[in-house]
Design goal:
The protein is α+β, with helices and mostly antiparallel strands and about 500 residues long. It contains 10 helices and 7 strands.
Length: about 500
Amino acid sequence: MSTTQLDLQVARRLTRLYVIALTIIAVLTVSGLLFIKRTINNHYDDSRVLNVAGRQRMFSQRLTKLALLRVEGVPAVDKILFDSLLTTWTNSHTQLRNGTLLMEKPYSVRKSEALDSMFTRIEPIYQSIRAGFVRIDASRGDLVDKRNALAVILRDEPSYLRQMNDIVFRFDAESFARVRTLERVEWGLSMATLFIVLIEGLFIFRPVVRRTRETIRQLTQSQEALRSTNERLEVANQKLEVANRKLTDTQAELLRITEEKYELQRAEDTVRSAALLEGQEEERRRFARELHDGIGQMLTGLKLQAGSMKKGPFSDEKQRTRFDELTTLIQDTIQATRQVSHNLMPSVLGDFGLGAALNLLAVQTAQTTGNSVTFEGSIDDEKLSPVIAIGLYRIGQEALNNAVKHAQAPAIQLCLRHTKTSIILTVEDNGKGFVTTKAPANERQVPTSRGLDNMRTRARLLNGELSITSRLKKGTKVAIKLNLSTANQH
């Protein structure tokens, strides 16, 4: 069992005992209060009963005095009515005997067997005296009868007063006994409460104090251990901070080396790409010369020989027709060879500059495809280095080929613009277009061909900014911008 579970069990057990003890104390306290309240109410009833019982003696004496005065014919100073006093005395006696006083509220007359016996013994004397009072109170009747009634009253009154006095003292004794019982019960409840408090102190508070003291001691030890651990952690954190600084420096150095390696690799790629493109251009230049100087000259000689043979006679008209067809084929072959040689390395680019070469490219493309291809810009542009001129020409040539081949554009426009700080070449069409970002499956996305890769490579080698913007059914625009200060370095 873990320490946490043990602590929970101890806490639950102590809490349960504490709640039980408090419940018992509360029950004893409330019971004592209810018992005392009930006893006080009963004692209040007893005091009223005792008062009424003592008043009965006084009423009987007053009635006897009034009866004597009435029989003797002496005027009474006491103004109370005889019959009213007799009625009150009679009703009080009857209610005391029956056990309930009916006054401003009902009062319970608690009687023991001794009181019941005393009321039984006094009953004949009470009835005798009451009968005498009734006979004297009667308005009619002779004086002798009233004197005889008065004699009976005077004879029985001492016995009535004595027994009534005993009843009053008995009521008082029993009321006092109940008060003593209340005191004993109160003492018992108090002792029980003190006993419960003692038990609670021994078996609840004492273990709680001991447990609290132990907990405080453990907390103190834990704080000391925590402080020691914090000190060690602080030292470790300082060491870790030093290690982190070293690691940060190492990471920075590694990042610098990586960046240098990346830049070196990129420079190598740039040099390699530049060498590859330069080799391609040189190969195109050589192949164009061979086509022009070799095959082109041979085809021209063949054409001249065919022209001289055309002057001779033919055996029939069919041979002449075939010869004419052969001459036309030779001429077409010469034109195709010249076009291939021009595409490989246009001589106008080196002779007249980039503007003239792009203008000629637009004219030839329009003648070949039948599309509307126009050039806008200066033909006599400023002199650019061969690398810049051939690079921009190849980008324009590739963009134009893409517009004719993929975009199926009816109209294409080439534009070459110069500013004080830059040169900008744009190729714009009104063809199908394509999406340059992530698109749904039913939309065309940007084509990934070697032509686009070559354009991007050439732009990067020229330190230029190549941008391709396109929208479906809205056309495509390819633009490259070169900084003149950067371009002059090539």
